[in-house]
Amino acid sequence: MEKETLFIAFSTQKGGVGKTAFTVLMSSYLHYVQGLKVAIIDCDYPQHSIFEMRQRDMEQVMKDNYYKQMAYQQFTSLKRKAYSVVSSRPENAISKAEEIIEQAQIQPNIIFFDLPGTLNSKGVVKTLGGMDYIFAPVSADRVVLESTLKFASLLNENLVSVGKGNIKGLHLIWNMVDGREKNELYQVYEDIIGELGLNILKTFVPDTKRFRRELTTKHKPVFRSTLFPAHKSLLKGSNIDVLAKEILETIKLQ
């Protein structure tokens, strides 16, 4: 009997903290490197930035022989196609995911959901309640931290703690970590997070410009793409591989 597909969201109500980047990076790493079968429901209406990224990636591959050869080599070595990226409104996201599962020849291990950055958007709370796991990126910036803690506390109090919905775990992730900052600062924040009854993963993701590296005509190593995993030269030191391992352990797929 096949394992049930897990529904996972990197979610927060503070923009620019990395929820969309994590969705793409984790999906590509787990699908193309770790061999898991993944899909994405882009319900970050109306911009649908991941769905548009897939379109850009496809256009770049189709018109550029360098990337076309890369895609061919990847397809033949992995013997698997690119993962699905489907656009949806938040209120329809769960039914879209169920369609993907029903139509798939091989059931996905994980479907990631990229949701709008506000709980006030129609259907967001209901869709979050349908997740198995929620990971909320957070940085040591006070405004970001306060916003994310408020967001996570609301979900914890209204969904997780009272057993509403399917949520098995809600975890924060340190993102945009400045290596020059003292560890004591993060320990203080983690004590506050613990007092609120929230959990945070051990892995720290550094603040680095490599997260913006997409497919370009200059053929530089790519970091963020829906068709390729992060290049090994850029993956080193990014902690994306370490984070992926911790997430798989957390969701019990490791």
From TrEMBL:
Taxonomic superkingdom: Bacteria
CobQ/CobB/MinD/ParA nucleotide binding domain location: 8-217
SUPFAM superfamilies: P-loop containing nucleoside triphosphate hydrolases
InterPro entries: CobQ/CobB/MinD/ParA_Nub-bd_dom, DNA_Partitioning_ATPase, P-loop_NTPase
Pfam families, A to Z: CbiA
PANTHER family to which the protein is assigned, alphabetical: P-LOOP CONTAINING NUCLEOSIDE TRIPHOSPHATE HYDROLASE (PTHR13696), PARA FAMILY PROTEIN CT_582 (PTHR13696:SF52)
Name the UniProt record assigns to this protein: Cellulose biosynthesis protein BcsQ
Species per Swiss-Prot/TrEMBL record: Mariniphaga anaerophila
